[in-house]
Batch of 2 targets.
Target 1
Amino acid sequence: MTSRPFLAVIQYDGGGFAGWQRQPADRTVQAEFEAVLERIMGRKTAATGAGRTDTGVHALGQGVSFLGIERWQPAELRRAMNALLPREIWVQQVHVMTPGFDARRSATARRYRYLIGTDEAAASPFRRPYEWALGQALDVGALGSAAAALVGEHSFRGLAAAGANTTHYRCRVALAQWAPRADGVGMAFTVEADRFLHHMVRFIVGTMVDIALGRRPSADFPRLLAATDNLAASPPAPPQGLYLEAVHYPPDLYAEESTS
């Protein structure tokens, strides 16, 4: 049967998963997604994620590519997947893509969001799994200054996990900003770049929060962007506050309109 490339834009609650990438024993989003694809396509079907989110990290717009049987149309494929996937995973859109499309390699940018609860109610069991329940006020000016220093191209060796499997540490940040959350109970950090290293966003947020709480001077942040290791970085922020919000692809890679 003839196949063609598809892109599924999916959301998931990462609390019950050991991240996106398949693991030998632990439950992962990739393994659940591929199991459903195998049932639908009648054969083993590999799925490639745009971002390898860590244990406990959530997604609002993870891009997943796979080769599907040509007879499937985006709308019916989306319905079939949502009928079989566990409740923690939901397919928001399905697109038919041009030959050679790869969700990871074809991406031009990824955007992450990190949520912090600064009020006492952040400790609620209905909020704690989805944000950093910090419960303390933050110096907004210090957060803004640190975020401004991120924009541009830098080596993030000082703000990423040690031993990351990468050929280089340089990333180009197009957007980095803090803003009050729409629900009025904390702060949200949005960052968009051409690529991200392992634990990079969590190291950035953890260090920024230490600066905003007066635990370390603001001058530390530019120095970390020039560091050759991560020994001076603050501990990474907890995973449950992090969301892969969106992945961007060139318009000419979309072969057809998506489902709604």
Note: DSSP finds five helices and ten strands in the chain.
Target 2
Amino acid sequence: MTQPKNFGFGEDEKMLRDTARKFLEDNLSTDRLHALVADNPDPGRKPDCKWDQDLWNNIVELGWTTIVVPESEGGIGMSLVALASVVEETGRAGLPAPFIATANSSLVLRECDTPAARSLLSAVAEGQAVTLAATPRSGSWLPDDTDATYANGKLSGSAWFVQDARKVDTLIVKAKAADGIMLISVPAAESGVEITPDAIIDLTRDQAHIEFRDVDVSDHQILAQAGTGNAVLERAEPGILTLVAADMVGAGEWLLQTTVEYAKVRHQFDRPLGFFQAVKHPLVDLMIMIDHARSLVYNAACAVDSEPENAAKFARMAKARASDVAAYSSNRAIQFHGGIGFTWECYVHLYSKRQKHNQMLYGDASYQRARLADLLMGPTGG
């Protein structure tokens, strides 16, 4: 298979992206975002979970959570390219909602292709928020690495680094059974499920680790049978990496545009800050980096849609380059805002923290390049 022209980004995808951008500009200004999630600068504060549930309900009504849900399950069945374009806009807005967590979960559910998974996809189409609880305490994304176990209809153990755990209705848990790895649907409010918030740097999201204490599991909750869970996650991983990369591209664009505007109005030595080459040249470099990362994101998304044999390779390229953008955009934005750049009142910190979180999520740039090398040249054992 070959990729379509313009990565398959046509008029429908453009209209979806533009509508998303307009909605977020109208309903989530940066002033409102900062007032919502950054009202308490106390470093000793407890982990917060601040988000606008009415805004989330509006997003659900707009159908964003159904973009990649098949029509047969009540979704609109569009491409990952379409979804990536909306995720880029949510990154630009710093959206504090379980949108990416639910989107990533939808990609996993599509790959399960079981009655239970299709039922949960239908619930997503109706507005249910879902997240992945698939990472052990080690943080490893290795196939058989999980701290949760399933036996005799009971789920025990734990999951770590669970994104937006306090905002979702359902968890997709990776567990080890006698016959291998399986995936299980667990209501977040189920008896025996204990969610403990993590203190993380990103104010626009929450993260938690979760304990499962003999949680009852019925057959209709089994999304992927024992022995098939690893393959499901492996097939879904390129899409997951691509969406996180799209979020970094969007946040990088906000940091670039905000810094450019500041460089126009801030004067030093009787000149606009942007007059000086030490400022303008790095901003041009950042613009080029963002365009490069954006191209890799849509290339990866299109590969998931049209040439899955290349999806893993292209997705790791996108995640690695977007992580570079995240680091550089944050660094230059803080530096070029000068004395106010590192302050709580300067909105740059919201995006810099979101970028740092995304850099590490599912593996940073170095990790992705190491895995890419394994794909291209074979495992080195390093």
Note: The beta strands are 130-133, 147-151, 154-163, 170-177, 180-187, 193-197, 207-216, 222-224, 267-268, 271-272.
